[in-house]
TrEMBL record:
Name of this protein: Arabinofuranan 3-O-arabinosyltransferase
Domain Alpha-(1->3)-arabinofuranosyltransferase N-terminal GT-C: residue ranges: 48-714
Keyword Transferase in annotation: yes
Pfam families: CBM_AftD, GT-C_AftD
Domain of life of the source: Bacteria
Transmembrane annotation, as ranges: 40-57, 122-139, 144-161, 167-188, 200-230, 242-263, 270-290, 310-333, 345-363, 393-411, 432-454, 1261-1282, 1303-1334, 1346-1364, 1376-1393
Alphabetized GO MF terms: transferase activity
UniProt keyword terms in alphabetical order: Membrane, Transferase, Transmembrane, Transmembrane helix
Domain Arabinofuranosyltransferase D third carbohydrate binding module: 963-1092
Alphabetized InterPro entries for the sequence: AftD_N (IPR021798), CBM_AftD (IPR056997), Galactose-bd-like_sf (IPR008979)
SUPFAM superfamilies in alphabetical order: Galactose-binding domain-like (SSF49785)
Span list, region Disordered: 1-24, 963-983
Amino acid sequence: MATMVTGTPAGPSSTDAASSGGPREPVTGRFRALLGRWRLALVCAGFLVLAMLQAPGKILGDTKSDLVVDPLAFLGRALTLWEPEGAAGQIQNQAYGYLFPMGPFFALGQLAGVPAWIVQRLWFAALMSVAFLGVVLLARRLRIGTPATAVLAGIAYALSPRMVTEIGAISIETIPLALAPWVLVPLVGAADRGSARRAAALSGLAVFCVGGVNAVATAAVLPLAVLYLLTRPAGPFKRRLIAWWVVAVGLATAWWAGPLVLLGRFGSSFLYYIETAAATTFPTDVLSVLRGTSHWLAALASPSGPNWPAGWALVHEVVPIVGTVLLATAGLAAMCRRDLPERTWLVLGLLAGVGLVSLGHLAEVQGVLAERLHDWLDGPLAPLRNVHKWDPVVRLPLVLGLAHLGGVAVRHVRRVREDAGARHGRRGGATLASRAVLLALALALVASVSPALAGRLAPPAGFSDVPGYWQQTADFLAAEQPSGRALLVPGSSFPEYEWGTPIDEPMQALAESPWDVRNAIPLTPEGHIRMLDAIEARLEVGEGSAGLTRYLARAGISHLVLRNDLDTGEAVATRAVLVRQALRDSPGIGLVATFGPVSGGDDLRDGSVADAGLDEPAPAVEVYAVADTAPSAWTAPLSSAVTVHGGPEALLSLEDRGMITDRPTLMAGTPGAPIEPAMVTDALIRRERNYGRLIGATSGGLTEQDALRLDNPARDYVLPALGAAESVIEYLGGTPTASSSASDADGFAAARLDTQPWSAVDADPMTAWRPAPWDESGEPPWWRLTTERPVAAREIIVSLGQEPGVARPEELRITTDTGELVVRVADTGEEQALPLPEGYTSTVTISSLVPAGAPGAPALSIAEVRVPGVNMHRSAVTPSPASPVSVFAFDALRGRSGCVTGAEGDPRCAPGLVSGSEEAIWLDRGFSTSQWFDYEVFATAVARPGRALDAVLAEARGSARVEASSEPVTDPRGSGAAAVDGNPATAWMAGGDDFRPTLELTWDEPRAVDSLRVVTAPGLAAATPTAVSIDAGGLPRTVRLAEDGIAQFAPVVTDRLSVTFLLPGDAESVDPYTRWEQRLGVGVSELEVGGPNPVADPDTEVFFECGEGPEVRVDGTVMLTAARTTVGRLEAQRPLALEFCDTAPTIRLPAGEHRLLGRSSATMSIDSTTLLRVGSPGDTDRGVRTAAETPRWNAEHRTVQVEDRSEDTLLVIPENTNPGWTARLDGQVLAPVAVDGWQQGYILPPGAAGTVQLDFAPGPYYRAALAVGAGAVLLLVLVAALPARPGRNRPPRSPGRAAALSAVLMTAFVTGAALLGTALVGGLVGMAALAGLWVLRQLLPRTAPALLGSVAVLALVVAGGLLLADADGTETQRQVLAVVALSAVVAGVVPGLPARWLPGRRGAPAVVAGR
């Protein structure tokens, strides 16, 4: 039978005021009394000072930047559910939750004219003060500790690890922490002070004040209150209190519960595309939970430092770790004491909190349902995924325990002082121990809050104010946008600017016209996200086109805002120079305005440049206009619509071909999509996506059988009817696999698509398979080829790749089905034959002998593998429509050459720009036709950088042929050929690790040479040589260069000259993404031998004869090509149309599966192929887009005037689709369709002109829900304000039988809760520890509290020591120890057996729970 301890007096009264009368106190006594009266105000003032000292003068990127910058405008927008300005129309995500209390707080500051940064600090101080005062008052109500130790506990709570970690970054999530004590305060002692109704209502008002931004965070204030109510003595008062409290909580949360339901019904589902359970539960081991360091973001850092400095310190630094461990230990020790008031409730609350925060944590020692719960957190329990939000349930019991332990020590010291006649000895030792405990608690508190005291609450890169040029940009766009929207480019996961880091884009607060941006979590349909990604992919490679202009225009994008003030490295965004080139090369896109100062392009210091000179000077903001933007509402005949297979991104390649201009498209599988015309593309290839990145976010193409590397709920952004859009990789002849690759999406770096296992057999030595540099498996990396049929080859031909600065392996292990060999390999990138074990085999595995990540491990990289008798291909198999296809459009997956054209037309080249091709040689596609059709074949190509192209250009210019000792950039504008092209704007740049950079020139005829000149263009980001070594086949000669770069020497007649560049100065480049300094190699703009190099006009024509261009095959038909282009187009690698040798070929294809192959030549890479069905010219004609008038156009209600129609017509609104939008014409509801995969479309039936009424139906319900919620809060205030009815203050006593039944039920509840909680937290280990310690407690009842406390303290202290000694190697040991410590606390409250049941204990007093 259990006896609950409720409100047992455990200390003096809650006042330290001196009694009146008697002699006058000395000054020190009066000072102490004054301090006692004002201590709470002094602490709150200290919080204010602490808050003001955090990055003074800076606005921090906290929660919502527009709430800080313009709170009144933000609150006004929060009153509508549909927000049309941002993200092409969106449901505002929980904006209603800021209506109270955060929004009004900042609004009052704005109305009072207080600077925004000061309002922000006042908010921080208010949160800390509310949390502090709540704990002090709660401790007094519970009679826990003394007034002084209650203050100590309040400070520990107000500056708890969660508060310290989050208050500067996401302060909205600290509101539940601050108000959790206040939810309990009215309930404690309710029976003695007033009615159940008033107590419950006051508690409900505290719940109301928590706000509704995040339902889970708000719910974190409820578990302790629920447990408190359940552990009250049985009787009518308990039932009334619970009933009233349930009603009060319902009234308090009604104002956001209704809008939350609408958000869940009509909002975009983004939970699959954010952090996963693997990330959020990783730091939730029991020790971390008890310490308060369970937030997964606290451990993250960028090359410039921690994202959250205070949280980082709590996780990694010694002093805060020691402090948090000691405070947690003190809390556990207190809970093992019998004299702790409300011990059972506090222990069950702690256990519940640890269980909630550690939910789904996977480890060697884990809860009994951990794996299933972990999976559910990525599924049905996804809203609970951020389990750290339950931290208040853990923290409050621990700090109350801290107050009690301190109170015990204080009272002991006071008793000793009062006992003037006490002898020394044991009492003196106990006093010393008590004082040591108090000192340790104080020092531990200081240590745990040291990051706050050090001014690290503020995240880095706060800002003084949004620069004025952003307001100018917003004003310009508002004046220039009658329709359309502005797209901020380049995209970035977060707004990391050179002037600071607001958590939201500045346009969110400033814009008065529609705008859009690709960020980390677009709260929009997946089709819209894919559309933005297609734009970003083009900008990332710096490739512009008329098709890009049309693609932007059909998306309703009227302006592009180039953010040159974006911190490219911190934001991990595309370089502005690439974006600028793409826009400049897109006809119809033009610069219309610039704002802000010119910056960039400056050297960081002598000999060091930023980003290899790619950061060119530019205004902070450049605004470009897009021609012929789609109006806000337009119509087109439904018969002109095109069905597209390939996702929204496919429209960009089709616009490049001019095949869907001004025509609406419907994605295949969309209800209402026409059967014809249909177009099939390969734009959407099966991949795996890392949602935490924008650049390099997707893996190489995948087969259906490829295992996924990430534990994401969704592999990629999901589209309806994905099977009708997605192409899948298939291997023919054999399948390459590997232990890992740098093309995998699970790494800390961008995926490199030219490093996948296929790269070792793609016939291109410039690509290579490379293991993932983040591989921590501890196993040697391996690459494997599995052939379709056994082969009996005796050897394989292997070319090894090279990782800069890392040695190649000296030995490799070759494994087949018949055995394995360890073979020595040469340190070369040339081909070498390696023996195979004898016998037939279907697998060949090449592996290193050294585990990945081992110190000094060589880098295994394989450029090429050839197995005799095995011919391999990689084909992307496109969707197979059942209807006739008008167009098949296939595009090669090209990389980036390494050069970009600057604003002044000057090439800028850097190794950091180079990205390899996923399809370097072959464009291989599988496709299907439903019946016999004739198709015309078209193809394009681009120049293929390399020595063959250099030779073609040298011939066109009449210049020397050149070979370089190193070419990190093979683009002809940055390769060795650039040194002899007669253009000083281009330059050869040697590799940074090339310590003898050499150019070897060759002429057709010998010539006399007696001088040369080395030209280095001013500002070239490279090292400048001061001497050269000349070798013409005889004895090399070293000559120093004159100031003008000339070197003269004895004449020599030769057709070959080797020039080595010596004594360069030191030059370094700082990579913006990694912040690493990289050595720059020698740069040579021109190497003039005997005179200036010949210059070719960029318009000089170059002809490639029949058979010199790429080859195209369709099934068994081989088509050779020729090409006609210019020197300038070859240098810039612009796409050119191929000419088929037999004119434009037409091929007849029967029904069934087919295969198209395009093979690149030595000088040209296949770029695209198109199959156009003969006899269907109208399928690709330009459409007619008719603008519709919009007399009324606001956020949630619009009217559109449509003309009379003789056929079904599409009404298109370039905003995101949403099921909440309805369209009516003459009272008839129009059928909705998704146009272009994401835009609103409605089918108009034939008929007369009329007015279409567009309404966002949930909008009125949203505002009604807010109004009803406001009424519910007012009702709650009224319930709390009504006086209590007389005579109902004390609950009646329960009859004896009812009391006995209540005790039995309580015993069962406590026992069940303890067992269940321990099992969920610690699994079998926890249950075993609980059972053993419970038995020990039964056997040693008198010393049980000290014994259990010792176990808890020792276990947790040792766990903390292991954390300091070896954080990475002691996870299991720490988990076991922390589980044992928690089990010791729980064992103290599990009801014991009656004494008569214990051997030798008959007649002894019963053991009661909580004693």
